[in-house]
Amino acid sequence: MRIIEKFSGVSVLCAGDVMVDHFIRGTIERISPESPVPVLRTEISQTFPGGAANVARNIAALGGRCTLIGVVGNDAAAKTLRADLNAIAGIQTKFVVNDRRGTIEKKRCVAQNQQVLRVDTEETSPIADKDAENLLDLLAGTMGGHDILVLSDYAKGVLTDSVIARAIALARDKGIKIVVDPKSPALSRYRGASVSTPNSREIAAATGIDPAQARTRAARAAAQDAAQAGVDAVLLALG
């Protein structure tokens, strides 16, 4: 509880892959006559900030303040994302807009509390050099006044090797702690971070050690992760 209470005084700079989570909920009562697939009758349609934007939402929910930096398209999904985030106290957004790269959107169709389909609209190639420079300019201009830098990597092309390296260097120069949520098994790309937060699947892919098999394996996997990545500490989520 004391740790959670401290969030009210924390200012976090978060950069990474922002996206929109769209949930379409309804009921399935019949099979389509056009093709042997179920027909979902929509009852509720909801959108939520996803990816790095969900990280920002969680920081705000704990009482912290978050500046969120990412890349979006010039599209309806970006407008939805901004509107959802602007409605949350404690979040400020600074997005690089790319007219050719659409905002990532994940649509989930749910019936009778069971997800039946997910439709992903995304571009996962590395962002253009110009977008990377604009992103780093935003980071450099915003870094001051923040306590922590969070790099939220969902492997969607925003956090390239060079962006990660330069962002970590900027933060270290200012004495700011860096937390990385890794997606890539190439752990060395996060070198210099303060804390890495892999889950079981991610650390097994990176180290070849399955931490779910035994507590000693979890400790060994975390130690190997820290050594390979060159980070100060590893917080391993066993989920």
Walk me through the structure:
This protein has 239 residues and is α/β, with parallel strands linked by helices. The protein is 31% helix and 34% strand. It contains seven helices and eleven strands. The longest helix has 15 residues, at 215-229. The relative contact order is 0.14.
- Main sheet strand line-up: 5-4-1-8-9-10-11
Overall residue-averaged pLDDT value = 90
The ordered H/E elements are HEEEHEHEEEHEHEEHHE
Main sheet overview: 7 strands, parallel
What's the end-to-end separation, in Å? Answer: 22 Å
β content, as a range? 25-35%
SSE class: alpha/beta
Instruction: Kindly report the oligomeric state of this protein.
Output: single chain
Poorly predicted regions: none
Give the overall shape, derived from the CA principal axes: globular
DSSP helix count?
7
Radius of gyration: 19 Å
What percent of residues adopt helix (DSSP H or I)? 25-40%
The number of E-state strands comes to: 11
Topology record:
Elements: H1 2-5, E1 11-16, E2 18-31, E3 38-51, H2 52-61, E4 65-73, H3 76-86, E5 91-98, E6 104-111, E7 114-121, H4 129-142, E8 148-152, H5 161-173, E9 177-181, E10 195-196, H6 200-207, H7 215-229, E11 233-234
Parallel strand pairs: 1-4, 1-8, 2-6, 4-5, 8-9, 9-10, 10-11
Antiparallel strand pairs: 2-3, 6-7
Key terms for this structure?
4-stranded mixed sheet, 7-stranded parallel sheet, 239 residues, 7 helices, 11 strands, 31% helix, single chain, alpha/beta
